[in-house]
Every structure is written in structure tokens, then in C-alpha cells.
Design a protein that fits this description.
Elements: H1 2-15, H2 19-39, H3 45-61, H4 71-92, H5 100-105, H6 115-131, H7 135-146, H8 151-158, H9 162-180
Helix pairs in contact: 1-2, 2-3, 3-4, 6-9, 7-9
């Protein structure tokens, strides 16, 4: 309560134009503002920023203070608003954090070495498996699956009915799955 009375008295004197009282008020407010900021969750160098922002606001709003009312709640309200502003700005700004384990565990966006070889090997195995299919099944896979033609277009090319092509494609996919999957289906 002694601090409340001291700060309220300094503020009232500062409002009357006493420059020395105003300087004393600002010095006395520094630890109080820092404590309020920390209570709001502000940490590190951001506390100093909140203190500066609060002092600037206090300077701009000093005429709005009513000497008949307590000073500390007025100062706390200003500090809380500046602390919230600072926390919001910090939340919007990405922060770089030194974390060597995360750096080393980062997934490389490039394909793994040898991935092209594996893809070519899988493509060659698929080509061999498709070539080993009976003629009707092979045509259904080539036209419908690989070239992505419609049933109507494939029926016109092969001379088979749409139902026969569907059956051939189903049987071909089952056979390919069995031959390309380790251990069968």
C-alpha cells in the first residue's frame, strides 16, 4: 500500500507539471511494470520491450489518470495490454530454435539414393509380368490401365465387348498382384 500511495502522489505531482516527480515516477514504475509483465507470461528480453511500451503508453495517457482513483490498477491494465500485444506479435513471428537433433533428423525432400534404380527395376518387373499375361488380359491392362483409354475405345480397338474387357482386366490385376507381391496375394 505504501508503494500505491507513493506512485499515486508522484503521478498527481507529474500531472501538475513537476518534471522531477515525473522522472521519479518512471524510475519507480520500472520494477512494478516488469513484475506485471512477467505475471502475464512475458519472458526474457520481451520483458524490457513491454516495460518500454508501457512507459510510452503511460506517457501518452498520463492526462487520463484520475488522481482520485488508485494508480496501480491503472498501471496494471496498461501493462497487461502491452504484454498481450507483445505476446501476440511474438506468436505471429516464427522463431528459429537451435536444435541439432531436429536438424539431423530432418527428412531429406530429395529422393533417396538409388530410388531411381528401384523405380526402374519395379517398372521392368511390371513390364515382364504384363507381357506374361494371356493376350486378352494383357490388352485390357495395356489399354485400360496403362494408356487409360475408355471401355468404348478399348472395345473398338480390340473387338471385344465391354463386359469381356472388364473380366479380362479383373483377372489380369489379380494375376499381376499374385506375381508381383512377395508371398502371393
Amino acid at each position: 500500500m505504501a508503494l500505491e500511495g507513493e506512485l499515486a502522489g508522484l503521478m498527481a505531482a507529474a500531472q501538475r507539471g513537476d518534471a522531477a516527480s515525473y522522472r521519479a515516477l518512471l524510475r519507480a514504475c520500472l520494477p512494478v511494470i516488469a513484475g506485471f509483465a512477467r505475471a502475464q507470461g512475458v519472458r526474457g528480453d520481451a520483458v524490457d520491450d513491454v516495460v518500454q511500451d508501457t512507459l510510452m503508453t503511460l506517457h501518452a495517457a498520463r492526462a487520463s489518470y484520475d488522481p482520485a482513483r488508485p494508480f496501480m490498477p491503472w498501471l496494471r491494465a496498461i501493462t497487461q495490454r502491452r504484454a498481450i500485444d507483445r505476446l501476440r506479435r511474438a506468436a505471429r513471428r516464427p522463431q528459429e530454435v537451435f536444435d541439432p537433433l531436429s536438424y539431423e533428423a530432418e527428412v531429406d525432400p530429395l529422393p533417396a539414393p538409388g530410388a531411381g534404380i528401384e523405380a526402374r527395376e519395379r517398372g521392368a518387373a511390371l513390364a515382364r509380368a504384363v507381357a506374361a499375361l494371356p493376350e486378352g488380359q494383357r490388352q485390357a491392362v495395356e489399354h485400360l490401365g496403362l494408356r487409360e483409354l475408355s471401355l468404348d475405345e478399348t472395345a473398338a480397338l480390340t473387338g471385344r465387348s465391354k463386359n469381356a474387357l472388364k473380366v479380362n482386366l479383373h483377372r489380369a490385376l489379380k494375376a499381376l498382384r499374385a506375381s508381383l507381391t512377395p508371398g502371393g496375394e
